């Protein structure tokens, strides 16, 4: 496995599920630009077990932008016409959204204002 940071948009609404061991997890499917970013998309199948990562994914909806970090495994899938395409499976360790960035900026600004 490899570690990666991938940015893209949600392709489908994240779902919460329960494993055979009774523990919850969340799944999501992300679309990211592949190669030079001119048209070709790479699908990233995400699974999160960490409560904070699960909550961050489940708060999002189709089309929302995000970045995910975690371990990836390269895969290949075949479309209806028999063409193969690359894909990735990711075990998500962290999720970053525009909301998280805004919140961190506000906290940094407040800290700077307190020092002045």
Notes on the structure:
The protein is α+β, with helices and mostly antiparallel strands. The chain is 22% helix and 54% strand. It is built from 2 helices and 5 strands, in the order E-E-E-H-E-E-H. A 5-stranded mixed β-barrel has the order 1-2-3-5-4.
**Helicity, as a percent range:** 10-25%
Sheet of most strands: 5 strands, mixed, barrel
What general form does the structure show?
Answer: globular
* Widest sheet: strand ordering: 1-2-3-5-4
Indicate the low-confidence ranges by residue numbers.
none
Cα(first) to Cα(last) distance is: 46 Å
The whole-angstrom Rg is 17 Å
How much of the sequence lies in strands comes to: over 45%
Q: H/E order of the elements?
A: EEEHEEH
The secondary structure category is alpha+beta
What keyword list fits this structure?
116 residues; alpha+beta; 5-stranded mixed barrel; 5 strands; globular
Question: Would you spell out the secondary-structure blueprint of this structure?
Answer:
Blueprint lengths: L1 E17 L5 E10 L7 E8 L2 H8 L6 E14 L5 E14 H18 L1
Parallel strand pairs: 3-5
Antiparallel strand pairs: 1-2, 1-4, 2-3, 4-5
